[in-house]
UniProtKB/TrEMBL annotation:
SUPFAM superfamilies: Clavaminate synthase-like. PROSITE patterns: FE2OG_OXY. PANTHER family: 2-OXOGLUTARATE (2OG) AND FE(II)-DEPENDENT OXYGENASE SUPERFAMILY PROTEIN-RELATED. Belongs to the iron/ascorbate-dependent oxidoreductase family. One of its GO terms (molecular function) is oxidoreductase activity. InterPro entries: DIOX_N, IPNS-like_FE2OG_OXY, IPNS-like_sf, Iron_ascorbate_oxido_reductase, Oxoglu/Fe-dep_dioxygenase_dom. It comes from Gracilariopsis chorda. Transmembrane segments: none annotated. This is 2-oxoglutarate-Fe(II) type oxidoreductase. It comes from the Eukaryota. Residues 172-296 form the Fe2OG dioxygenase domain. The keyword Iron applies.
Length: 336
């Protein structure tokens, strides 16, 4: 297996950006960060973002609170916690309820979704005592960082600087996802990386929204840039997957999602990824991760921006609302 040569981008110049101020103005250093993003996203669709304004200890604390949440007995999680339904997209997702890739016979993970408290009321019954306060604070912090990142994306793509930042402000679709991949079986030569139907920790997929931040504490993430907004049968199954080196809660991994691919007419693609186990030692341990999905507000019209149609470029995607697109994909991912 090959390691992906993923670049690190230092986001420190953006930490002082006030995303509420209009007009947004960028200095030279910030414009240079935007150029680096453009390069990384065009070449891999994934990058490591350093100095985002979330310290290592905050990231480790977040991973620890995922552990505390999922450490609750299964009977408690099923009876006392709110179970996630597509309509709300928040709460607990038991193992087996979500299948990101329908060719897989199952996915070896459980998850918990936290939504924007400013956009709708979420209750946290059955969660550990500090979980509500901690996850809400983390959501708000990541949402601000995401808006700064959205400005950098707009600069990189030469769009009006507020273009993406306004779409995700107060978004009811943005989600903070806590993930736990429990220890699983490993059989040499029959790993889920090779058999396209075997159960897997997270099946081949692209994320739905504009971009995602990922914080993880263990190996297994693999990526494969694809030519469009979704994973085709061929691209998911053939070889060419690259390992993402583990960041162990030291920096954030960023990837672009399907709605970004639609708006940019695939100038920035959605990057396919999955989570596998390569060996006995990875299989024998739990893996915890957090993903923040920067998804536009549900009423946002997602259309190819005219800038990507210049010079007679064919329009690859029809206009759709963020809600219709995302709920379509959430329904697809629901185990039938
Ligand atoms: O756990 C990971 O590293 C990836 C999770 C992921 O891709 C997702 O939840 O969309
Ligand atoms: Fe993902």
């Amino acid at each position: 297996m090959h390691e992906a040569p993923i670049q690190h981008v230092d986001f420190a110049p953006f930490s002082s950006l006030d995303v509420e101020q209009r007009p947004i103005q960028l200095n030279e250093q910030q414009r240079s960060v935007a150029q680096q993003l453009d390069h990384s996203i065009r070449t891999h669709g994934f990058l490591f973002l350093d100095n985002i304004g979330l310290s290592c200890s905050e990231m480790r604390h977040a991973l620890h609170s995922a552990k505390q949440l999922f450490d609750k007995p299964l009977s408690h999680k099923l009876s006392a916690m709110k179970i996630m339904h597509t309509a709300s997209n928040c709460g607990y997702i038991p193992q087996g309820d979500e299948i990101l890739n329908r060719r897989r016979r199952g996915e070896l993970k459980e998850a918990y979704h936290v939504k924007n408290r400013r956009a709708f009321a979420q209750t946290f019954e059955g969660c550990p005592p500090q979980f509500e306060a901690h996850s809400t604070a983390l959501f708000n912090k990541l949402a601000t960082i995401a808006r700064r990142f959205a400005v950098a994306c707009a600069a990189a793509l030469q769009l009006p600087l507020e273009h993406f930042a306004d779409m995700i402000e107060q978004s009811d679709l943005a989600t903070l996802r806590y993930l736990h991949y429990p220890p699983c079986e490993f059989k040499e030569g029959q790993s889920n990386a090779h058999d396209p139907h075997a159960p897997i920790r997270a099946g081949e997929h692209t994320d739905y929204g504009l971009f995602s931040f990922l914080i993880a504490d263990g190996a297994g993430l693999q990526i494969k840039p694809v030519a469009g907004g979704e994973v085709s049968d061929e691209s998911a199954q053939s070889g060419g997957w690259l390992d993402v080196p583990v960041a162990r809660g030291e920096c954030v991994i960023v990837n672009t999602g399907a709605l970004m691919a639609r708006i940019t007419n695939d100038t920035w693609r959605a990057t396919a990824h999955r989570v596998v186990v390569h060996d006995e030692s990875v299989a024998s341990r739990s893996r915890y991760a957090l993903a923040f999905f920067a998804d536009p507000h549900s009423t946002t019209r997602i259309q190819v921006h005219e800038r990507f149609l210049r010079g007679g470029q064919p329009r690859r995607y029809e206009t759709i609302s963020a809600r219709d697109y995302e709920y379509g994909r959430l329904e697809e991912a629901k185990a039938k």
